[in-house]
Here is the input.
Amino acid sequence: MLGAYVRTSLHIFIETLMSVLILSLLFLLLCAISRKSPASILRSTVCIAFFLTIAAWGQSFQQFSPSNQGFKTGFGPVDIIAGDFNDDGKLDFITVDSQGVGITVYLNQGGAIFPNGGSTSWLGGQGPIAAVVGDFDNDGRLDVAIADHGNFNSQTQQFEGSGVSILFGNGDGTFKPAIFVPITGGQPVGITATDYNGDNFTDLAVTSAGSNDITILQNNGGTAFAIAKRFIPVPGLALGPITSADFDQDGRIDLAFVTQQGMQGDFSFADDALYIAHNQGNGNYIVNKIMAINHPGPINAVALNYHKYPDLLVSRAFPVTGQPHGVLALTNNQAGGFTPQVIPIVDNASSGTKAYAFDVDGDGILDVLTSFSGEGTTGGNFFNAAVALGKADGTYGPFQLYGGPNHGVAVGNFNGDGRNSFVGINSASEGFFVFLNTGPNSNCAAFSITVSFALCAPADPDTTSPVRFIASPTMPNGVDHIEVWDNGTKIDQIYGSHIFKSYTFTSGRHTVALVAGEQTRGIFETLNTTLQITEPGSGCPPSSVANTVVICEPTEGSTVPSPVHVTASATGQFAIVHMRIYIDNNAVFDTDASTLDTLLPMGSGQHNMVVVAWDSHGNAFVASRNFTASGSSGGFCGLPATDQTINICSPTAGSTVNSPVAVSARARWNCCGAVTHMRVYISLGR
Here is the structure.
């Protein structure tokens, strides 16, 4: 079982060793040219930069760590999809098994621990090749639809068992017997979920290489599917994989697909291209050719940046001489076209699988994940999952390789730590491989796979503008887009299931709603948060004297209403990297800026405030104020000093209080995750 993984790991080890040897030779050459000893060169700026580059190169390959390596899958896995198939809030996955003619379900035991071999459900057709997951009957449970390519019968010279198998979930990880919808002469190669007729039931679109057509399977009220339409989008050309999204933002779900004439024996690849079929809303589509792509493979609608229009990732099925090999990242130009960018993989790689876009390193920039296989230059095959980290300028770094998977990856928060990890499959060794994200930053991946909203920022509702929102909603059919509303007015909409974006607000109180939309079923989930926006801290000018903290509000000895408006600034000989407010010896507010401007609720009476600033060398500077707060906001409760802790400030333990009882508490999750909900339980006295 571990053979493919060991061979791949050895391949990567040899490549790494060769790279280190080459870098060492370059270093010795630098020493010879400069006629200095290695010790003196190490003290030079050139060599320091050189070794920093090596260190950065090595560090970039530490984002994921292997776990559960080489466990058994079904026979001939060709696809993998993540989802919560037993409704326990933990992310599971299924594999589509081409030789076993079924799907195998792997239920998460907690902490990304999966069984060595799962439970199998059988299909109605033959030769399964691709699948899509969704809630087809709107009962809140995940269902699965599988494109069955069919198997060739040499006696009849026909493909048998071509069509679509639909399995309705029971909500416990099992499925009802498959419903099979035959597609005569089809030989399906791709399947995607769509809403063909706008009735908020998930329909299916299937591409077929045998009949060169697209079949629309209409969902009849969640109980059955029937063929509603078959049409040939590009006469004479064999169709390949398909995906769906509202690419032109007209409110109707379109289809994007590729042609794969090169795989039918015409190895010139001249007719291979990307097309979009625009949904007209009347049962018809208008097909536009977007661009030629030599030997395209799987296609996926994704968000490559935080804008309204869906983008695309297209994997190359095989390398083409003279063409860059890898994943094509296609950014929607919002005018009917796409801007391509190649993320290269090693030249001898082939059989690229579906690619995904997720933020894996927590920097707010979306990264690309896929898998592939290839023939090694020294013999044997290699199998790799590949991760390309996105950059701020819209480009991508080189793919980081993780040995083992070759036929698909599934991405998500498998162990509940707020990070996106992945599981990959190997069709040759028939095993699965779990890679856990061990990076230092959370990327706000959803903690539950049921309908939920993970809100990681803003951490404090009392803040200054602009405000950065970091959130990840989840819904059974997947989140199609996120809307941002301010005081009842829609201010933005982005495609995808993750938001990492800043917005400008005027001073005052704002009710901000994040609305997650599931377009195939017309379902929406809303998260409301209230912000109190104050003017930026530039209202408190910094001192011209270094190593000084200036407190502008409140003034010394003043009486001010609660919540108390606090503004301060700091100046240092070195850069100011952090500021903190203490009220009556309780730490209550932190910022990584050189100014602060916030509102702090506190009880009536006299208070002592201390503001501390730290510079980049660890030096601390302090200023203090004594003032009186008037009015009452229920009393001030300090932020806990440790993560995942709640401070209950009133009533105190064992105290006797009058009813109604004033309850004051404050919670802390961690440094960069917001607490979005608190609940008070009262037990009846005996």
Q: What stands out?
A: Helices lie at 3-34, 38-42, 45-59. The longest strand covers residues 523-534.
